[in-house]
Write a structure and sequence with these properties.
Structural class of chain A: alpha/beta
Strand content of chain C: under 5%
Number of strands of chain C: 0
CATH architecture of chain C: Orthogonal Bundle
Order of helices and strands of chain C: HHHHHHHHHHH
Radius of gyration of chain A: 20 Å
Oligomer: heterotrimer
Radius of gyration of chain C: 23 Å
CATH superfamily of chain C: MetI-like
Largest sheet of chain C: none
Strand order of the largest sheet of chain A: 6-7-8-3-9-10-12-11
CATH class of chain C: Mainly Alpha
Distance between the termini of chain A: 30 Å
Structural class of chain C: mainly alpha
Helix content of chain C: over 70%
Distance between the termini of chain C: 16 Å
Number of domains of chain C: 1
CATH topology of chain C: MetI-like fold
Strand content of chain A: 15-25%
Number of helices of chain C: 11
Chains: A alpha/beta (323), B mainly alpha (319), C mainly alpha (288)
Largest interface: B-C, 57 and 48 residues
Shape of chain C: elongated
Helix content of chain A: 25-40%
Chain lengths: 323, 319, 288
């Protein structure tokens, strides 16, 4: 299978004073061209940090990143910053989380959308603005360019997210990363934005890494799912298989936590808290909250195993349910 | 937006009115009314003094005199100097150019020093360079301008004799000398301002840096220059204008002193000169003129800000 | 327990991380203490009688005999600096206290009552803040004759709005808090709520502002006395000494060093202290 992006054993730790926080531990996965991957998990599980590590936006801070991030067999983590700069916004583009605060309030829309072309392709301003107009039309803006000279705060949240998407797709990147692209929006607008993203992926064969805490969004959008817990990927695989036959107890619990309208039964909550990641627990990260945990689960760190079908799980006793 | 502008205009007018009251009564209510004292000292003939007082309307109640004064000011008549007999406005106009020149030069010098250093310090907050700059800025703000001025005279005029110590020569008379004489007062004032500007740029940039749109800019792969200057500093620059408005008052205060230190014969020098010659009509007129100018500049900067900042434009009408 | 410990640790680290490792703050404390002692007990510090004229040794350069040299009348500059500390320090402190007495209640009233009182007070605050303070000071002092009282009043008048502004802002945010609401619902009188419930919560910003204003007052006072509008000779004033120094700048360029340094150290120490206090307050606010 061809790979576009391949992440191997990615780990990120932050140093805060005398303390270290292991935000991401040993994360590996691949993304194929035209594929939509959903990365799910509760807040603080390391999904956003993973995306920032891919884009190397953690540089210069107090973060240490280890592992490999291969984009078409080129290790991004080993690139000099100058070259990396031309990966961001050109080959990998980010659709930010909160469209209300992610656009610069004092620059015009046209200026911001056209910027990647001027920066990475050396286009003239005129040419870039023409492309910006096209990109905005692609994300659903009407023809014409009156809005190019307007400012972000003159648009609603949904329109701003469309602007942010136009800004990301304008340079036709190989990979789009969307970090909770719809959490700040109304439900009806959420659906529109997701449809738009799906359409873009279909039309351009770009890959999409979708970060979300919402399993419903994932089940609607994605080809594959990665479930993250406490800095690790605990389960990976085809969407349908993961949702129907979860192998990791955490995935099972997550699915059980979705309120079910048909049965109107109260949804389950997962008792307890994720571990503090000031050190990597030398045991299963989920053991303390797991209903199936055994003595062995607490004895040592759990290895991540990937089968031939591309199904990955990090559990000593994977669930096997055939119903 | 227009109601807000109107509101601001109204406030500015009210403030100028309040200032005029303070200026007038602060002098005239002083023990032994200095205006009367000065008048008494001019003529030693009591009858002549009495005649003069009647002529100048100084025997009317104070508030009548106030309204006569402010009424004249509104018509552009600031009265005549008690010493030279020339119209106050004419004297002010002959001096104001030198002061405006000095202030603009000082602001430019302040910006040239503070903006690059402020941006650089803000890229690595808490690091050595940042700490050094911050400490120097506190030192700069703690140094009264006359100290900076004296130090400069000691070094550049006395010790190394690069520049003339003080004085003023009109541009038309000797342009080279004019610039030479401007360098030190403008720099003294500019260094003081740079300390204030630096803090503002640094802290403003640090605030902006935390904004999510700055991460968007980084994720777009922009060069550090574009990130900090185009995306970051533009935001800081807007709020900077309101700071500049507040700084104008402080700058004028500094100018008064700097002009004295370097005998730069602008408005500040005029104020102090009228103090030493006890020319109270000139003093009151000049102080009112300068204060009103400061309030008006402030107002203009505020309006310009409202006009330039897209956020104010759309929300201002409601707020 | 754990978070308490963490909090303590971050605070301690933060302190060590301060500009110049906190050493500057300690130096500032020492400088301020020295100045206060000079102001209260000048005789402890005198090397000579600060008024003793020695016609035979005018304008002597610094030496072991006169560490900062002598002035144009042969008086010991160091001793005159010590003597001048009293006026500058007391005017600085006095004007800050008076500004506080005027500014804080106005801020309380403006923030608490809002409405008409607030708009009038805000207008006065805005007006005073945009007014070039030096001009007002020059105008008033020249009309009213310079004396310690005039200087204290004038400096307090140009500075009180800073207190008003800060207190008003704090009150506006505090008055919506639950405990203030509760006090109001339980029928406490407005003035009681203001002074018993709200004021104590504004103490830290007031103290920070006060320390900064002492510095500002010293700048204005020395500036006025440099312009000849401060306390009159023969009483030594730091600003006045600088004026004399400027007249002899070609003969005795070192003359301005001592008064200049005296002013600079005073303002710098007070500002460092203010900076330290406001950072400390900031940290506490963040911790909450």
């Amino acid at each position: 299978m061809s790979k576009r992006l391949s992440i191997n054993h990615l780990s990120v730790k932050f140093t805060r004073g005398d303390e270290q926080i292991h935000a991401v531990t040993d994360v590996s996965f691949d993304i194929a061209p035209g594929e939509i991957i959903g990365l799910v998990g509760e807040s603080g599980c390391g999904k956003s940090v993973t995306t920032k590590a891919i884009l190397r936006l953690l540089d210069g801070g107090n973060a240490q990143v280890q592992g490999q991030v291969l984009l078409e067999d080129e290790d991004l983590l080993a690139l000099p910053e100058k070259k990396m700069r031309h990966v961001r916004g050109k080959r990998i583009a980010l659709i930010p989380q909160n469209p209300l605060s992610s656009l610069n309030p004092v620059l015009t829309i046209g200026d911001q959308v056209a910027e990647p072309l001027i920066e990475h392709f050396g286009m003239s301003k005129k040419e870039a603005w023409k492309k910006a107009r096209e990109a905005l039309t692609k994300v659903g803006f009407p023809q014409g360019d009156a809005y190019l000279k307007r400012y972000a705060n003159e648009f609603s949240g949904g329109l701003r997210q469309r602007i942010a998407i136009a800004m990301a797709i304008i340079s036709e990147p190989d990979l789009l990363i969307a970090d909770e692209p719809t959490t700040a929006l109304d439900v009806t607008i959420q659906a529109q934005i997701l449809n738009l993203l799906r359409r873009i992926v279909r039309e351009t064969n770009t890959s999409l890494l979708l970060i979300t805490h919402d399993l419903a969004v994932v089940s609607e959008m994605c080809d594959k799912i990665g479930v993250m817990y406490a800095g690790q990927i605990v389960e990976w695989g085809e969407k349908r298989k993961v949702l129907r036959e979860p192998k990791h107890p955490y995935t099972e619990a997550l699915i059980a936590a979705i309120p079910d309208k048909r049965t109107e039964a109260g949804f389950m909550t997962i008792p307890g808290q994720p571990p503090k990641l000031t050190e990597i627990p030398n045991m299963c990260h989920f053991a303390d909250r797991c209903a199936y945990a055994e003595e062995a689960c607490r004895r040592s760190a759990i290895a991540y195993s990937l089968d031939e079908e591309g199904r990955g799980v990090r559990c000593l006793k994977p669930l096997s349910r055939s119903s | 937006m227009y109601t807000m502008m109107l509101n601001k205009l109204l406030r500015a007018v009210l403030i100028i009115f309040l200032i005029s009251i303070v200026i007038f009564f602060a002098v005239r209510m002083a023990p032994g009314d200095p205006v009367m004292t000065v008048l008494g000292a001019i003529g030693n003939n009591p009858e002549k003094v009495e005649l003069l007082r009647n002529q100048m309307g100084l025997n009317d109640p104070l508030f009548v005199q106030y309204f006569r004064w402010i009424g004249g000011v509104l018509r552009g008549d600031f009265g005549v100097s008690m010493i030279s007999g020339k119209p106050v406005l004419e004297i002010i106009m002959s001096r104001i150019g030198a002061s405006i020149e000095l202030i603009i030069a000082a602001i430019l010098i302040g910006l040239v020093i503070a903006v690059p250093i402020g941006i650089i310090a803000s890229t690595r907050p808490g690091k050595l360079l940042d700490k050094i700059c911050t400490t120097i800025s506190i030192l700069g703000m703690s140094t009264p301008v006359f100290l900076i001025g004296l130090l400069m005279i000691t070094l550049f005029a006395v010790q190394w004799q690069w520049l003339p110590a003080s004085g003023y020569v009109a541009w038309s008379e000797d342009a080279g000398m004019h610039v030479k004489l401007l360098i030190m007062p403008a720099t003294a004032l500019g260094i003081f301002e740079a300390a204030v500007f630096f803090r503002f740029v640094r802290n403003g940039m640090l605030d902006v840096m935390r904004e999510p749109f700055m991460e968007t800019a980084r994720a777009k792969g922009l060069s550090p220059f574009a990130i900090f200057v185009k995306h970051g500093f533009r935001n800081t620059l807007l709020t900077f204008m309101t700071v500049l408005g507040l700084e104008i008052g402080i700058l004028v205060s500094g100018t008064v002193i700097v002009e004295q230190v370097f005998s730069w014969t602008g408005i500040g020098w005029l104020v102090l000169n009228s103090v030493s010659t006890r020319d109270y009509t000139l003093l009151q007129g000049t102080v009112l003129f300068v204060s009103a100018a400061v309030v008006i500049i402030n107002l203009l900067l505020n309006l310009l800000y409202a006009f330039l900042d897209p956020r104010v434009k759309t929300h201002g009408g409601r707020g | 327990m754990r978070s308490g410990l963490q909090l303590q640790r971050t605070r301690r680290r933060w302190r060590l991380n301060r500009i110049g490792g906190g050493v500057l703050v300690w130096i500032s404390f020492v400088i301020i203490a020295l100045y206060l002692l000079m102001a209260l007990f000048p005789t402890w510090f005198y090397a000579y009688d600060p008024f003793a004229i020695d016609a035979l040794s005018p304008l002597q350069a610094p030496s072991f005999k006169h560490i900062f040299g002598t002035d144009e009348y042969g008086r010991d500059i160091y001793s005159r600096i010590v003597d001048g500390a009293r006026d500058t320090i007391f005017i600085g402190l006095g004007s800050a206290i008076l500004a506080m007495i005027i500014g804080v209640p106005l801020g309380l009233i403006a923030g608490y009552s809002r409405g008409k009182a607030d708009s009038v007070i805000s207008l006065i605050v805005d007006g005073t803040l945009s007014f070039p303070s030096m001009l007002l000071a020059i105008l008033v002092v020249s009309a009213w004759k310079p004396s310690a009282i005039t200087l204290i009043v004038v400096i307090a008048l140009v500075n009180f709005p800073r207190f008003t502004m800060i207190v008003r802002g704090n009150v506006l945010s505090l008055r919506e808090r639950e405990y203030v609401m509760a006090a109001r619902l339980s029928g406490l009188s407005n003035s009681r709520i203001m002074f018993a419930e709200i004021l104590p919560n504004c103490v830290t910003p007031i103290i920070v502002q006060a320390s900064l204003l002492v510095g500002n007052a010293i700048v204005i006072e020395t500036g006025l006395s440099y312009l000849g509008l401060g306390l009159q000779p023969p009483d030594p004033s730091w600003g006045g000494m600088l004026t004399s120094a400027q007249s002899y700048i070609y003969i005795a360029p070192w003359y301005s060093a001592a008064p200049g340094l005296a002013i600079l150290l005073a303002v710098f120490a007070v500002n460092i202290l203010g900076d330290y206090l406001s950072d400390k307050m900031d940290v506490r606010r963040r911790m909450e």
